[in-house]
Amino acid sequence: MNSKKVEPVKLYDTTLRDGSQMEGLSFSAGDKLKIARRLDEFGMHYIEGGWPGSNPKDMDFFKKAKDLDLKTSRIVAFGSTRRADTTAKKDPNIKALLDSGVRVVCLVGKSWSLHAKHVLKTTPDENLKMISESIEYLKSKVDEVFFDAEHFFDAYDDDPAYALKVLKTAEEAGADCLVLCDTNGGSLPGRISGIVCDVKAGIKADIGIHAHNDGDVAVANSIVAVEAGAAQVQGTVNGYGERCGNANLISVIPALVLKLGIPCVSEDRLKRLTELSHFVSEVANFAPNMHQPYVGESAFAHKGGLHVSAMIRKQAYEHIDPALVGNVRRVLMSELAGRSTVVLKAKEFGLDLTGNEKKVADILKKVKELEHVGYHFEAADGSFELLLRKETGAYSAFFELESFRVIMDRTSEGTVKTEATIKLHVKGKRYVETSEGNGPVNALDTALRMAIGRAYPALKNIHLTDYKVRVLDEKKGTGAVVRVLIDSGDGEKEWSSIGVHENIIEASWQALVDSIEYGLIHSKMEESR
After folding, report:
1. Residue 243 — left, alpha, or beta (φ > 0 → left; ψ -120 to 50 → alpha)?
2. What are phi and psi of 72, to 5 degrees?
3. Which of 109, 269, 461, 476 would you call most buried, defined as having the most Cβ atoms within 10 angstroms of its Cβ?
4. Are 319 and 327 in contact (CB under 8 A)?
5. Alpha-carbon span 392 to 402, nearest angstrom
6. How confident is the model at residue 308, as a pLDDT?
7. What is the C-alpha separation between 371 and 251, in angstroms, rounded?
8. Reported CATH class of domain 399-454
9. Could you give the dihedral angle defined by the CA atoms of residues 131, 18, 327 and 311, in that order, rounded to the nearest 10 degrees?
């Protein structure tokens, strides 16, 4: 942890406004309310709800947000300074900000003389008046006004005197925080740090940072800005935002708390970080990024045997304890695994292989042989647990297959019908079942369930949720080996299984059987507890 004394930092979330500008993302007003509640529970200081007056959805959000019983957060409305041809009191954008009912406003204004002339079509002096009058008017109506200095770092590089004059004008008008915005996202950390230091030398008001990620350094830019004296960090959950996104608060927050020792959220709330990230992903209808730092499924996943061995002896190859951010350590089984990996994975499944060197070596050899022909156990923990149970004698077959057959008929009209017949033995009885399906795997699945369902009622809770096929050697064409991955769940637990074969039906059968047997084993274990 950095021992350097750093000032307190406020967290400002703009997922609902800036984040919603991400391509492919669309929040309803209801979605925004859900996220706002969760951000408040997490401990976010400010939640920017949108731009009042810009669209009906944002106005609906602000109307309904008045009924939110927020404990830690304040809702913020975003808008621009008055126009050049009117007064702050008469400006429709400023009126919309006040009509939203919020007590905190973030006002964006031009900090670049070039933009004042060519974008606003006014003079640099008039731009200063627009900023000053807008802030003064709003400060007489609300509790806090933040000034978002748009394109500040580019403005400072081009015309530092004017950029600083803009900040000084906003400060004198009563702005509570001057937010330096890297709007194009192209500045580098060293430059950000230097400019923030320059600004701090001549400004008494709090400084904030709003970084975009076009150079892939928005998180770094936010952190160095804090180290240089910024007291507010703006960003979004998961880095959502226009173009390449905004500074990812999911990475910024643990860096501030755990690396710099800045308690911007409590340790208990920090443990909800992974949950927050995944919740917003679900509301946004995006799959969580498994490789995302701190909260991704792979953030603390260990595949190499040496890494796993070191992890068992001491917490190595991890920059923090995953539990601090609500994540978990994962040990992946693959051809790169060592003996320590096998022992650790077995322990996860309640199997003790400590000291049984020969059995561990045999299992490791088998895993590497299977991975060589196409198995991929790091993506199929269900199948790997079954393999361990079979190799250690902790497995009893639920049925014995005699044979199965799949028939597909295609008529001249283009109608396709698939039928599967299964013959097997369950608890001493022979069953023959035939079923139709929309495809061979569906027909097999249905026939298998018909055959064993009476003996194993828990099967009704086990459902296939995803089915993937990958050709492993495309050069062999239709004769190539295929890998089938099946995801399944029972409403509480989820698992994956795998099958590999030249015949896609056989590969699917392997994965299907593993999926069902895994579910039945764990159902039986739950019943015995």
Report:
1. left
2. -120, -20
3. 109
4. no
5. 25
6. 46
7. 34
8. alpha beta
9. -80
Structure-token pair, residue 396 = 């009893």
d(CA 453, CA 131): 72
Q: Is-contact 370 390, C-beta < 8 A?
A: no
Locate the DSSP E strands across 303-456: 330-331, 400-410, 416-426, 429-437
For the chain, the domains span: 10-273, 301-391, 399-454, 456-529
The DSSP H or E segment spanning 208 is strand 206-211
- pLDDT given for residue 305 in this prediction: 47
Q: Is the dihedral of CA 328, 332, 337, 338 positive or negative?
A: positive
Residue 160 has pLDDT above 60, yes or no: yes
d(CA 459, CA 326): 32
Which residue in 191, 203, 138 sits closest to 166, CA to CA?
Answer: 203
pLDDT in tens, 197-230: 999 999 999 999 999 999 999 999 999 999 999 9
Q: How far is CA 72 from CA 5, 40, 210, 472, in A?
A: 25, 6, 21, 52
What CATH number belongs to 10-273?
Answer: 3.20.20.70
In terms of DSSP bridges, do strands 301-302 and 232-235 run parallel, antiparallel, or are they unpaired? unpaired
Q: Are 224 and 189 in contact (CB under 8 A)?
A: yes
Residue bearing the bigger pLDDT, 29 or 479: 29
Q: What is the pLDDT of residues 455-491, one digit of tens each?
A: 999 999 999 888 888 888 766 666 688 889 898 998 8
What is residue 498's DSSP assignment? E
CATH number of 456-529: 3.30.160.340
What is the Cα–Cα distance from 233 to 45, expressed in whole angstroms? 10
Residue 53, amino acid: G
Please say whether the beta carbons of 92 and 80 come within 8 A: no
Distance CA(262)–CA(248), nearest Å, equals 17
Tell me: the pLDDT tens digits for 309-351?
445 445 556 788 888 998 776 665 444 455 666 777 777 777 8
Q: Taking the C-alpha atoms of 284, 300, 210 and 236 in order, what is their torsion angle to the nearest 10 degrees? A: 20
